[in-house]
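Dissemination and training. As part of the outreach component of the grant, students in the summer workshop were shown how a complex can be specified as a set of sequence lines and then modelled as a single object. The example used during the hands-on session is reproduced here so that future cohorts can follow it. Participants entered these lines:
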Amino acid sequence: MIDAPAAEAELRDAHGRRIEYLRVSVTDRCNFRCVYCMPLAGLPWLPREHTLTDDEIVAVVRELAPLGLRRVRLTGGEPTIRPGLVELVARLKALGTLDDLSLSTNGTRLVALAPALRAAGLDRVNVSVDSLRPERVAELARRREPFDPLAALDAAERAGLGPVKVNVVVIRGRNDDEVEALAALTVERPFHVRFIELMPVGELADAEAAAGRDPLALVLPSDELLARLAAHGRAIGRPLERAEGPARGNGPAAYHRFSNAAGTVGVITPMTHTYCGSCNRVRLTADGRLRTCLYGDHEVPLRDALRAGAPLRPLLLEALAGKPREHALLARRTGGLRALSEVGG
Ligand code: SAM
Ligand code: SF4
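and obtained this result:
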């Protein structure tokens, strides 16, 4: 048994880390099938009645607020395909307890939704952009129609959903020839382009292994990537410098800037550098399980308690007590890692 902290206490886990950030997966479904994330055939989708309702998501955030929760990110799956997303944003904002309410999206619905999301109180967006070429986006997302991610970035910026972060999963041999072009976006535009080391899981990893290749060879380590960006900076007369990240929502990325550029470039390094020691986040899955580490198995189900009207607080404390000190991915034990679309990556 853990002693319940005073109502105004900060939310801390058993290793003293302050937990102020919740990522909420609002749907397990997606209109993309990114090669590194979701099987082409999709997943056994949750029955709709298993997905948390708006009332239930709002209740979890409300309950966590007095314990120190200040930041919420809506993710998925693809959050913009959840019906009523704009209303959910408005309700979370109306709680008045969040400093930062953000959204991770593949961008496909941003042109349509960005103004309404901003008006409802969304602060900012992260847009996943693995390529600037519409045909390659479609190929990596295994989607028939080409999709122009720049239109999504423009829509986000125009609507005032900044600082706009751009997430790029780099796959050696598939899109790493575009890292310089993607980084160069930041010279003129106030974007924060973050290169994420591929976590080789799922169908992509299985296909490599089946072909007799090491899936880890698909990972472009961040040190190699930064060396390439530094060379690019020298080539364009804008040396790459260490930089502060965007003012809001700094997570595990380390930031750099081409000299005098409008935006920054960053790296997120799940494969080569652990950042577990400063991990300040927990995740709520679409079916209401509080997951304390992206890569572990530790989850505490909240949905039944929510539906029975039982108090959540003991469950929240139980979840935090079990948050692991660090994850097992670096030890190449990927047990428990499910597709990120399922757990709100
Ligand atoms: N659909 C939204 C999107 O794509 O931004 C939100 C959910 S997606 C699961 C969240 C993030 O996880 C995206 O930036 C995606 O690129 C990243 N991601 C998914 N699978 C990954 C993997 N195997 N390795 C690295 N990043 C991954
Ligand atoms: Fe969908 Fe995002 Fe996963 Fe791509 S990364 S399949 S867009 S959830």
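The mean pLDDT is 88. Students were then asked to discuss how this feature might be tested experimentally.
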